């Protein structure tokens, strides 16, 4: 659930940048998000959060081997028992009962999936933020000083949340 919560936070932040991009750069498209339709903008963050949860649950689930690998480190650094903690982590190589080392495919898929989701969010924020910033600078002469300052403060607030 922690992973899903993080996925929801980053995707909602991404949604804020997207909506701000629409409001500043593509105001003619805002008509598509009036009234009840505005709630549709929250479907992608919800789906991303569910996907994040599934990657954590099935791709990076806790195993005996992961607990064993972390046992000494957790005991030494935090005085915690790996058997009593909940965590998400990747173990990319596993040793089977014959001593043969092989890829742990589910952990590799889980990590790759989370990296792709995070990349999508970061690229969306960079794209929308960059375009919004550029548009605000380009039309700065046509806005009142108060509107420019409000837009600047809102942009800084959104950027600091990242």
UniProtKB/TrEMBL annotation:
GO MF terms listed in the record are: G protein-coupled olfactory receptor activity
Which Gene Ontology cellular component terms are annotated?
plasma membrane
GO BP field = olfactory behavior
TM spans (from-to) = 41-60
Q: Which SUPFAM superfamilies match?
A: Family A G protein-coupled receptor-like
UniProt key word Membrane:
yes
Record keywords, A-Z:
Membrane, Transmembrane, Transmembrane helix
- Pfam families associated with the record: 7TM_GPCR_Str
Record's signal peptide: none
By its UniProt entry, which InterPro entries does this protein fall under?
7TM_GPCR_serpentine_rcpt_Str (IPR019428)
Q: Which PANTHER family match?
A: 7-TRANSMEMBRANE DOMAIN RECEPTOR C.ELEGANS, SEVEN TM RECEPTOR
Entry protein name = Uncharacterized protein
Annotated source species:
Caenorhabditis brenneri (Nematode worm)
């Amino acid at each position: 659930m922690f992973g899903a919560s993080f996925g929801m936070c980053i995707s909602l932040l991404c949604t804020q940048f997207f909506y701000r991009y629409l409001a500043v750069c593509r105001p003619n498209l805002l008509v598509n998000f009036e009234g009840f339709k505005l709630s549709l903008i929250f479907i992608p963050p919800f789906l991303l959060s569910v996907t994040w949860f599934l990657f954590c649950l099935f791709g990076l689930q806790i195993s005996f081997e992961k607990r064993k690998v972390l046992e000494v480190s957790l005991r030494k650094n935090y005085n915690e028992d790996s058997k009593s903690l909940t965590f998400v982590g990747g173990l990319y190589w596993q040793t089977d009962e014959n001593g043969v080392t092989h890829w742990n495919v589910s952990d590799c898929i889980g990590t790759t999936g989370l990296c792709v989701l995070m990349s999508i969010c970061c690229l969306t924020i960079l794209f929308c933020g960059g375009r919004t910033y550029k548009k605000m600078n380009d039309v700065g002469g046509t806005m009142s000083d108060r509107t420019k300052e409000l837009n600047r403060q809102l942009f800084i607030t959104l950027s600091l949340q990242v």
